[in-house]
Amino acid sequence: MWRRTDSHPPMTDPSQRAHLSRIVEALERLAPPTPPAAALDDGDAFIWHADGRRLELVADVNRVELDLLRGIDRQRDQLLENTRRFARGLPANNALLWGARGTGKSSIVKAVHAAVNGETGGRLALVEIHREDIPTLPALLGLLRKSDRPCILFCDDLSFDGQDASYKSLKAVLEGGIEGRPANVIFYATSNRRHLMPRDMIENERSTAIAPSEAVEEKVSLSDRFGLWLGFHACDQETYFQIIEGYAGRYGLDIGKDALRAEAREWAVTRGSRSGRVAWQFVQDLAGRLGKRLD
Known about the structure:
Layout: H1 14-30, E1 45-49, E2 54-57, H2 73-87, E3 95-99, H3 105-120, E4 125-128, H4 137-144, E5 151-155, H5 167-176, E6 185-191, H6 199-208, H7 212-224, E7 228-232, H8 237-250, H9 257-271, H10 276-290
Parallel strand pairs: 1-4, 3-6, 3-7, 4-5, 5-6
Antiparallel strand pairs: 1-2
């Protein structure tokens, strides 16, 4: 007759329980305490932590000055004007910045926020939410709704794959929910995909659905909730040079124009692309070789 044997019998020895309790207490002391949640009045930029349902203050934002962003003048002007209207309490649109990697999509959001704050005395808050935390959007909006401060809610590299249904949380927030988007919140997102989902996923939905157009419509229509679409494309060589020359002038890099362009051209060839990101990487390398700090 088979009988179950338990290699780990219940622990009844009080000394063993006390020993384990001391181990747990020691581990808890070693673990860093959770920092207190920040309030929207504590600064200008924050990160949303979904696990603790709290905001963390970002004291030093990693951003580029607005006038150093070259080759994206139209996108800059449109996003800047939209953000200015929002800061003044006027109607403004959610914005989707889509296009090639490294073309300045996230940089322009942070630069525009800084520029408008400089004009309005720090009126705007920038709150970043990570892509994987989109399902907690209702909780974040509930928190932001309690404040009168205008907030740019920013999600970098937003996209959806496979059976991911978290896009429904965003879709309801952007337009269709009962509560809707709070009046003091606007949503800016960057993505490499114009419709926030890969083309093969769209085609698969069409080929396997009974009503192909209806199957795709729900997911594709998410991007339609953004009233402002700004496309970003790989820059040409002259724009690439202008970006680098702007950085070189701003940071006082002592190198002749011909030498600068020759080295920048070689750098782009080794990377296989030209973009604002590649330009910045080159400038960092050049500054290091010249012994110059990028302050």
